[in-house]
């Protein structure tokens, strides 16, 4: 039994295939596991990274190699999702999103405008938020963020996140599973906040209709409008117009001519 397998408790939450991958490949195995975690968010990075740090503390892998390979795995996984977003493109994204219930095209346009202003911050800090750390790469690809900028921000954000947890596992040694408990609580808070935000958005859409609808015209005005328009059209076409009430038909007031002044 290797040091990694011996140090992994049954309730640590680390899948057996991750242990075998690190036992067989060492630091590159940790990098592959993190790349897969980016593509499939349910895989627990809060388990993989501290476990890699613990393996480094036992001499199974070099600490610097663990940091390098896990960061490379994060960037490769994020780059794959960026490619998915770029292939999907804006038009397809808008078409799919517009079919979702309670979602309007205006919402997508506002999101695009927000990403145009804050996309760099979203990519950088998003790498340090569970769940969103993988998903943030897709809108970056859809909006065609410049690839060097995306790679730089993703590498820096991933390096910070990975270094914190790899070093935590390295320093805690056999107690590395304590890190998973804290990160799991953090992930649950993020998940609850995301669910509440979705529920709030749905509630606003359901119970507060959007602005911009036409105001209803009073019934009297609606009835008078056709009559006024038809009278105006008749006058413009040269049709005879009925005289006002009290004036006999066919009568007309004599036109007054100016009287010439006597000299």
Short description:
This protein has 263 residues and is mostly helical. The protein has helices spanning 3-7, 16-25, 27-39, 45-57, 63-98, 105-126, 132-135, 137-142, 147-172, 177-207, 219-237.
What spatial form do the alpha-carbon principal axes imply?
elongated
Stretches with pLDDT under 50, minimum 5 residues: 211-222, 231-236
Alpha-beta content class: mainly alpha
The count of DSSP E runs of length 2 or more, i.e. the number of strands, is 0
Largest sheet descriptor: none
Notes on the protein architecture:
It is built from eleven helices and no strands. With 263 residues, the protein is mainly alpha-helical.
Please describe the topology of this protein.
Layout: H1 3-7, H2 16-25, H3 27-39, H4 45-57, H5 63-98, H6 105-126, H7 132-135, H8 137-142, H9 147-172, H10 177-207, H11 219-237
Helix pairs in contact: 2-3, 3-4, 3-5, 4-9, 4-10, 5-9, 6-9
Summary keywords:
263 residues, mainly alpha
């Amino acid at each position: 039994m290797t040091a990694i397998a011996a140090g992994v408790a049954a309730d640590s939450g680390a899948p057996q295939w991750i242990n075998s991958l690190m036992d067989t490949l060492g630091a590159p195995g940790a990098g592959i596991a993190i790349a897969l975690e980016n593509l499939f968010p349910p895989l627990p990075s809060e388990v993989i990274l501290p476990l890699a740090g613990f393996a480094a503390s036992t001499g199974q892998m070099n600490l610097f190699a663990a940091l390098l390979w896990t960061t490379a795995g994060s960037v490769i996984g994020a780059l794959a999702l960026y490619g998915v977003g770029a292939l999907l493109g804006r038009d397809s994204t808008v078409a799919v999103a517009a079919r979702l219930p309670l979602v309007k095209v205006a919402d997508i346009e506002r999101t695009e405008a927000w990403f145009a202003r804050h996309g760099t911050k979203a990519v950088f800090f998003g790498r340090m938020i569970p769940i969103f750390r993988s998903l943030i790469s897709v809108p970056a690809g859809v909006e065609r963020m410049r690839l060097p900028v995306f790679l730089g921000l993703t590498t820096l954000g991933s390096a910070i996140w990975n270094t914190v947890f790899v070093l935590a596992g390295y320093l805690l040694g056999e107690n590395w599973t304590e890190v998973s408990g804290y990160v799991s609580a953090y992930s649950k808070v993020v998940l609850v906040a995301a669910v509440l935000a979705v529920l709030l958005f749905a509630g606003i859409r359901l119970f507060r209709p959007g602005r911009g609808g036409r105001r209803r015209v009073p019934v009297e005005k609606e009835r008078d409008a056709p009559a006024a328009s038809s009278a105006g059209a008749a006058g413009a076409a040269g049709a005879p117009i009925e005289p006002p009430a009290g004036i006999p038909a066919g009568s007309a007031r004599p036109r007054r001519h100016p009287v010439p002044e006597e000299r």
